[in-house]
Amino acid sequence: MRSSVSRRPPKRRSRRSRSAWPTTPRSDRGSVTTATARRVRQENAPAGPGGRAPRRRRTRRSTLIGLAFASPFIVGFLFLFAYPIAASAYYSFTDFNLFQSPEWVGLANYVQMFNDGVFWKSLANTAVLTVFGVPLAIGIALAGAHLLNTPVRGQPLYRALVYLPSIVPVVVGGYLWRWLLNAQYGFVNYFLSWFGIEGPAWLQEPEWTKPAIILMSLWTVGGTMIIYLAALQEVPKELYEAAELDGAGMWRRFTSVTWPTVSPVTLFQVIVSIIGFLQIFTQPYILSQERLNQAGSGPGQSMLSYAMYLYQNAFVFLKMGYASAMAWTLFIITLVVSLIVLATSRKWVHDGTR
Fold it and tell me: What backbone torsions phi and psi does residue 41 show, to the nearest 5 degrees?
């Protein structure tokens, strides 16, 4: 059935309306294109034998603007980082006490260092703190991250409480631990007395000073724990489900699924922890204070760390040359230990490519 409404033919634009639009005559189109090309050639044409001056000016201007924005970092790097490194390398071969001009002595500072008994004592103390402190910090952080990854009520609160000590200033935490480790009225010994254990004199007996420093250092393990927590949350749940279907227990799931997945994070944490313990200063400095702002070295020099002895030579004895030699020796030790860890990491780090 045909519609009763008749279709009207579409309106055609009149010649007048079409002619109202501005158009370019065909005869002029070639001239417009030619003019545009001529203008582009003129802009890019070399201005004489010197080359393309406009482009060079734009490039030079962009370079100057970039250098202006980067100048704060460049100036800070040169004067606060590069110059001190170069100066300390030079001073390590001189006899310098801040009040006289440096006198070149060659390798005398390094020879004196290896004949210095206090140097070896401080190095041994630092080595003990590193050997025992790093595994404890890594183990406690990984175990705590497992607990924080367990879905329980109040989980965000527990995570905040664990991380809270990490944002407390180290000096404030040091004086707090001086009170906690006090042999007479400290909370640590009071807590041990609940179980019938007589607490030791943490800061007065040489065999207990290093455990006291390590215990204080473990107080700020919350930062490492949060990093491990982020790594654990990236482990695919399908791997745990597949391991459970294969009958794997908790320990088997940890060794076959969790540890290989978080091993790259462990490598990072091990290197950072080693560097931190080799440079440890604030904790033994505060715990060894006999009076306020008067640090010692602990009973039998048991708290004298490498960084503390370096500080004493530089700012107490004013032996800047000797302190610079110690600083470069510490740098070499840190570099060698880090390279050894990286070399052995091929056997226990699983990055997905091996």
Answer: -65, -35
Distance, in Å, from the CA atom of 57 to the CA atom of 65, rounded to the nearest integer, reads: 12
4-54 tens-digit pLDDT: 444 555 555 544 444 444 454 554 444 545 656 555 555 555 555 544 566
Model pLDDT for residues 130-184, shown as the tens digit of each residue: 999 999 999 999 999 999 988 888 888 989 998 999 898 988 998 899 999 988 8
Angle at 163 between CA 136 and CA 251, to 5 degrees: 45
Domain ranges of the chain: 116-345
Residue 290, classed as helix, strand or coil, is: strand
Classified as helix, coil or strand, 289 is strand
Structure tokens at 241: 């489900």
Residue 340: closest CA among 291, 267, 276, 287: 267
In the CATH hierarchy, which top-level class contains the domain 116-345?
Answer: mainly alpha
The two three-digit tokens of residue 303, written as one number: 């708290």
Q: What is the phi/psi pair of residue 194, to 5°? A: -60, -30
3-state SS assignment for residue 236: coil
Alpha-carbon gap, residue 314 to 309, rounded angstroms: 9
What is the rounded distance in angstroms from the CA atom of residue 80 to the CA atom of residue 302? 33
**Cβ–Cβ under 8 Å, residues 261 and 291:** no
95 DSSP assignment: E
pTM higher than 0.85:
no
